[in-house]
Give the backbone structure.
Amino acid sequence: MSKKHYFDPADLAKFGHITAWQKSMGDKFFAWYGEVMKEGALTEREKALIALAVAHAIQCPYCIDAYTSTCLEKGSDEEQMMEAVHVAAAIRAGSSLVYGTQMMNHAEGMTM
Amino acid sequence: MSVHQRTKSLHARGNALSDTFFQLKVLNGKEVSDARFPAFSDAIRQAGFPDGRLKPTAIEIFQVNVGKLCNQSCAHCHVDAGPDRRAENMTKENFDRCLDILSRYDIPTVDITGGAPELNPHFRWFVEECRKLGKHVMNRCNLTVILSNPKYRDLPQFFAENRVEIVSSLPHYSALRTDSQRGEGVFEDSVKALQLLNGVGYGKEDTGLKINLVYNPTGAFLPGGQAGLEAEFKRQLKRKYDIEFNHLYAITNMPISRFLEYLLESGNYETYMQTLIDAFNPGAVAGVMCRNTISVSWDGYLYDCDFNQMLGLKVNVPGRAHLSDFDFETLANRDIVLNQHCYGCTAGAGSGCGGQVA
């Protein structure tokens, strides 16, 4: 088998095949996944926007493709989708910056 | 703001897809793409329809496509309509034939479409005559026509006086999504037109005047759930523009005409067809619109639906496929003409001129 890259868009369509080597766990995962993404206290559109943001935070190319499509299907527009990506980016940036308090605490503890 | 044309018709550009036979060849893997997909009739057979045949349930909707002339030229138009389609407009003679049929048979609803139906010079007279016959009249209004010329500004009052149910495309509550499909300026004029329609009572409680919006995807993807989209459209249009409407119909784009051109040119054709086929819903077949509709073209021919009309697939009743040979019983027992584009009406929750079907 020759392989020139790690990510192949065609693999997204094979996601369901992961049950082949561990059916019980795989089936449980997809049942749970389906339940999570169904309309509940949050709409399917809102859940798709959260998924899109998470996809960017974890930098999963499959998830980015999948949830860009889903967001459009559920009626979100470009502005809303980009805002969701900014939320992911802001939390990522903030999670680094908040460690600045640890740095400050440590520095204050060892300086006059 | 005036509407900027998104494109010209395939017909005006001399595009090969303006030939309906060529489109059918593409859909069957014999032109442009060599992708072959399972025959729709096989899918129908597996869904439990004997011999892969589909029969009407009734003739309840008489859908009249009065012409291809339109003040817009949307990128996805299945009619290949536009300002350059001046030749195809229903004549008084064919309208008279429609009225004769409507007076003789108990067909409760007349669904008027185009093009922009209001641009046909006989439009208002035809609406009034249908109402005199006691028919429920629906008009597929593109909204911007109301703003396109001062002589159309009183259309909202005309619609209200005749209790016409309005069905209008608005693919998104965002200007960018709407204008990318329908042309720059369409969203702004659509909002103004909706406000004028609200102003005469459309979409308001207790008036009985209905305005339903049509959502169709602005790209190579399927519509999401109709209820969720309707809730979001209602929230956003009320919040931003104080617009109210009755229902949102989510309609899947058919892989024909200018949307087929888009699919082929953007490299999405095969993926889109596979998406439709993967989403085939046997439960949606029973409710497809061709089972209770007769579609009439500007030149008086009869079809199972507006999509078959645009592919030149006349009703399968030899010698009786024109208004002048209309035979209710034969039509009520015909076999509906099927082809690969029919996957568009059976994907997901199903789709028709009235939105989701399953």
